[in-house]
Amino acid sequence: MTQSVGISGVDTLAQELATIQQTGSKRIALLGSRHVPITHQNLIEMMSYALVLEGNRLMTSGATGTNSAAIRGAMRADPSLLTVILPQSLERQPQESRKQLDLVMHLVENPENDHMSLAEASSLCNQEIISRCQQLICFAFHDSQTLLKTCQEAEDQRKVVTLFYFD
Q1: CA 65 from centre of chain
Q2: Residue 16 lies in a domain
Q3: Which branch of life, at top level (predicted)?
Q4: What is the pTM of this model?
Q5: Could you give the percent of the chain with pLDDT greater than 90?
Q6: Is a pLDDT exceeding 80 seen at residue 3?
Q7: CB-based contact 149:120 (threshold 8 Å)
Q8: Which residues contact 30 (CB under 8 A, 6 or more apart)?
Q9: pLDDT in tens, 63-73
């Protein structure tokens, strides 16, 4: 049985293939769970280091776990290619994150979200991050609702999404 693909479907597929095959730098978002074993954090740090060494711009948020590992790797490779977007103001971030975040050159705060719960603010923050990227790499558990919703929103925006599950 032959399936017909409309012009918009062909355009979408062509756009996604072009993004994957692009040899120049890309804007890549790297997001994931706060609760990550140290061995996985080391892998995420190496991945972000390699992505930034290749000239890609990396975006993440400021939480512990996945995001912190992504920041460490990017900072080692080229701090000028890292952008960290916080769900709330810097003052609302955990103390262990603030020390690292103080070193980030391109730090975006969202103090207008300080009155929200962290879950609500994180959801808005993730939306902002995916609106700025071409590709999303996400590390999650099968019950990570906010992250899985972010991946779906990125797919809906025709972003290239790579989702790794910890469980």
Answers
A1: 13
A2: no
A3: Bacteria
A4: 0.85
A5: 80
A6: no
A7: no
A8: 44, 47, 48, 51, 58, 59, 60, 66, 67, 70, 136, 137, 138
A9: 999 999 999 99
Domain that holds residue 161: 25-165
> Which DSSP symbol is given to 45?
H
Q: Residue 53: count other Cβ atoms within 10 Å of its Cβ.
A: 14
Token couple for 61: 């948020």
> What is the 3 state secondary structure string of 85-97?
ECCCCHHHCCHHH
Q: Alpha-carbon Rg of the chain, whole angstroms?
A: 16
Q: What is the mean pLDDT of residues 80-108?
A: 94
Q: Is residue 37 part of a domain?
A: yes
In a domain, 4, yes or no: no
Residue 62, class by beta-carbon neighbours within 10 Å (0-12 exposed, 13-18 middle, 19+ buried)?
buried
Domain count, the chain: 1
Q: Which residues are registered as beta bridge partners of 98?
A: none
CATH code assigned at 71: 3.40.50.450
